[in-house]
Amino acid sequence: QLSFGTSGRIKNINIQEGDPVNTNQLVAALDAQTLSSNLAAAKSSLDGAEKDMELYIENYESNQDAVGGMDEYKIGVEKNQTLVDKATATYRAAQGQVRDTYIYTPFEGKVVSILKKPGESVISGEKVLHIADLDQLYFEILLDQEDFGLVKKGMKAEIILDSYQNDTLVGEIYELQDFTDPAMDNNFKVKILMSANEKVIPRIGMTGDVSLLVENTPGEVSALVYDEIFFDDLNKPFVWVLDGATIKKFEIEIGLEGDIYTEIRTPIDKSVVIGVNSDTGIEEGYKAKVID
């Protein structure tokens, strides 16, 4: 999203929505008549200060008696140099003000939207138009502080856009925000670079779901749903199994934990009792039977 660096009235906008643009292309300008006059005046003052310095030096070389001794000469040079420096600073400031009345494109892309029209007034920093590099699109997500500690740049991601439910885009984390934003519930913004996909044509503003590959196993592993695993008083994981007709506690070692499934590293050769929650009150030794 591009904006002017100063306030004023828009003189012209040189592009239309959908137009391709090149890097450093002039796309919009403010009416800068007053600022241009200030710039010309500042340039004239600078030229005058520099000319006075040259004449002073020439006058000393040709008529030293009129200027005085070396000490007086040095004082005169310093005074003239101060005037030159002040005029230079004024001129550069005026140049910057005029420069802020133009908008140039920072990269090659396409005009997505134009938010203002010629003749309208804008303030410094107010959004005027939006361009995007459609060959390099990013998907932004918010992560809370707990999950943020699990991700890093380059981590792989899978994206399913709401408009393309049957197709998955792949990407990788490109940028991690360095600070939280109270306006976003103190979450971190994460930018994901999306890879090209011939079936999916992303558009600016599309929403969807993202899965981040935090960790993976070399191949398929045994797993149980998270609520089929329990923890004893020492926080050791176990499952309820059926040994014949008796329910028993079976300690296990767990591995990767996902939102739904948890890896089970301990081989289980008995039937696992499922559909049990912590409020059921099962104890070891209870009798059970298998029903269809």
TrEMBL record:
Coiled-coil residue windows: 32-59
Keywords (A to Z) from UniProt: Coiled coil
Any GO CC annotation of this UniProt entry: efflux pump complex
InterPro entries per record: RND_pump_MFP
GO molecular function: efflux transmembrane transporter activity
Domain of life the protein comes from: Bacteria
Protein family: Belongs to the membrane fusion protein (MFP) (TC 8.A.1) family.
Name of this chain's protein: Efflux transporter, RND family, MFP subunit
Source species: candidate division WWE3 bacterium GW2011_GWC1_41_7
